Please model this.
Amino acid sequence: MKSSYIPFLQCYRLLCVVLCAGLSVMPAVQAELNSEPRTKPMQMPSFKISYIPPNVGAPTRRVGAGTRGKVCNEANMISESFKIVALGPVMTGYTLSAQPVLYWSINQAVQGDFIFTINPLSSDAEAFSLYEPLLDETRQLSLQAGIHAFKLSDYVIELKTKQEYEWSVTLVCDNKMPSLNLSATGSIQRIAPSQGLLAQIKSTSEQQQPYLYARSGIWYEALQSLSQLIENVPDNRQLKKIRHNLLQQEKLDLPIHY
Model:
């Protein structure tokens, strides 16, 4: 009995030592797992972002422009294939902000005068403006090809809720003949978010907010939140693919590297 008891006791002691060592290591391992480096790449849920547009059946608002031959004499570095595009949805896009960021693109580098306008629209089918412009600003810019931002927060203006606006970016080609200028227009309407949507936004991470905005039909915040993530990490190809996917859904087929 004694000879068989001693090996059993030795095994029992060895097992206790192993278990105690394991338990002492676990807190250190858990601490290491919880302390992820800040340089770790952002993990986005998917390249597939789904924009669900509101107001199905509303009139088309967006208009894009290209050159009409070599007529843009007042802009430098421009060819016949030059295009300027307002990055809004085909139909009026929603925003939650009184001062949203509007995005537009050009496919070639250009230097010249750009006119930015925002006009309230009437409720009739033809959508002619019956009001004074909310904004009419001319800027002299030298720009590279790509996506550019126009921030309403730079001005003392605010969009009203339930009011539709037309916004445009115009490259001045001839000061004496405005009809030769190249314009791209989009439309925007500010809406008041529901308490449920506000709660979702508050509880959603920055990386997932573009998906929430897109499926809620809030175009301008979906594009802005994605573009802000790209601005923070300019070399992140995954983020650019997601934005490219969003733009494609509204027939905005820009180069994927933008």
User: Anything to note?
Assistant: Confidence is low (pLDDT under 50) at residues 1-9, 14-41.
